Amino acid sequence: MALEKFERLEAGLSRLLAEYEALSAENREILASQGSKDHELAALREKVAKLEKERDQVRERVDGLLAKLETLMQGA
């Protein structure tokens, strides 16, 4: 009887350790994925900032062209 309890305990501990190992591996994968996503997010933020700056430059040029056009139209 005592041997059966010991065997059940041993089996339970084995299952527990296997589950711990599986969860640890899953956690490592999640952390690696998160690191990858953090780098991707930083790159996308940088791209958005670049595009916003480009958009502002285009807007300034268009405003300048519109101002010149308006000047030309007033002179005609």
Going by helix content, strand content and strand pairing, the class is: mainly alpha
Q: Largest beta sheet, briefly? A: none
Share of helix among residues?
Answer: over 70%
What Rg is obtained from the alpha carbons, in whole angstroms?
32 Å
Relative strand content: under 5%
Low-confidence stretches: none
Average predicted local confidence, pLDDT: 95
What distinguishing features does this structure have?
76 residues, mainly alpha, single chain
Question: Which helices and strands, and how do they pair?
Answer:
Elements: H1 2-75
Can you describe this structure?
With 76 residues, the chain is an all-alpha fold. Helices cover 97% and strands 0% of the residues. The chain is built from one helix and no strands. It has one helix spanning 2-75. The model has no long low-confidence stretch (mean pLDDT 95).
Concise synopsis of the structure shown:
The protein has 76 residues and is mainly alpha-helical. 97% of the residues lie in helices and 0% in strands.
